[in-house]
UniProtKB/TrEMBL annotation:
Keyword terms of this UniProt record: DNA-binding, Transcription, Transcription regulation
Pfam families reported for this sequence: HTH_IclR, IclR_C
Domain HTH iclR-type: 9-71
Residues covered by the IclR-ED domain: 72-259
Descriptive protein name: IclR family transcriptional regulator
SUPFAM superfamilies found in the cross-reference section: GAF domain-like, Winged helix' DNA-binding domain
The keyword DNA damage is assigned to this record: no
One Gene Ontology MF term: DNA binding
One example of a Gene Ontology biological process annotation: negative regulation of DNA-templated transcription
Length: 267
């Protein structure tokens, strides 16, 4: 009985191995190549493929003896992603960051032309608290997390269109606020180059913010994480220390969302 159970587990593992290999061949992979890559014998691979085909996970291609994944695998992946609760995934990492740095931790999601604060942890050191609150809609142009969303926008026309549409809203909240599209383009190029964004007292005097992007499996940036602190605390702790811990956290959350480290987090 135990032997049969072990055999079933082995077949399951081998079948999953074949699915993983096929995921790298969108146009199909020949049986001979699958045999080579899996280090299994041809008859075993063929038997496993027949089982996967009968369950609808793979199908033959137009090339004789080749197989590829079906959309059933895509559907399975999408169901897995949709079942993920982003706060449930991110909160342990954010809480750890909060304990390490002792500063305000912010987590936001992009919704169109705004950044929405969906999670916030108050500082454990010091008394300074920011005005930001959970559920707050923040403009993209004047916050560190907003700059990340602008920098990683895939539509190259978006920034110019955004600047025109938000003309009445884009105004200097402090002397440091960026209010021209030309200066913002320079800023966003620097964000892409360094891999992080800063709010240098652009939204609130005395308060600075450092933010890093959260990447998903498509390398898209729909979420961002930031650390808010006072100028005094920034000088005390050091930007390098904050950024090092922030990057560790953003990478850990990104990996849980399916992002692959070998796609290289900028910076």
């Amino acid at each position: 009985m135990a032997e049969g159970k072990h055999s079933g587990n082995q077949s399951l593992i081998r079948g999953l191995q074949l699915l993983d290999i096929l995921s790298n061949f969108p146009n199909g992979c020949p049986l001979s190549k699958l045999t080579e890559l899996s280090s299994l014998n041809k008859s075993t691979v063929h038997r496993l493929l027949q089982g996967l085909q009968s369950e609808g996970f793979i199908k033959p291609t137009n090339s004789m003896g080749s197989y590829r994944l079906t959309t059933k695998c895509l559907s399975l992946g999408q169901k897995t992603l949709s079942s993920m609760n982003i706060i449930h995934i991110a909160s342990p990492h954010l809480e750890t960051l909060n304990l390490i740095l002792g500063e305000t931790i912010n987590f936001s999601r992009r919704e169109g032309d705004h950044s929405i604060m969906i999670y916030k942890l108050e500082p454990t050191n010091g008394m300074m608290k920011t005005r930001a609150y959970i559920g707050q809609h923040m403009e993209l142009y004047c916050s560190a997390m907003g700059k990340l969303f602008l920098a990683h926008e895939t539509d190259k026309r978006y920034l110019d269109e955004y600047w025109v549409e938000k003309k009445a809203i884009i105004k200097p909240l402090t002397n440091n606020t960026i209010t021209t599209v030309e200066n913002m383009k320079i800023e966003l190029a620097d964000v892409i180059r360094t891999g992080f964004a800063m709010d240098r007292e652009e939204n609130e005097m005395g308060v600075v913010c450092i933010a890093c992007p959260i990447f998903d499996l498509n390398n898209s940036v729909n979420y961002a994480i930031s650390v808010s602190t006072s100028i005094h605390r920034l000088n005390q702790i050091g930007k390098t220390t904050i950024l090092t811990e922030l990057r560790k956290t953003s990478q850990a959350i990104s990996e849980e969302l399916g992002w692959q480290p070998d796609e290289k987090m900028v910076g």
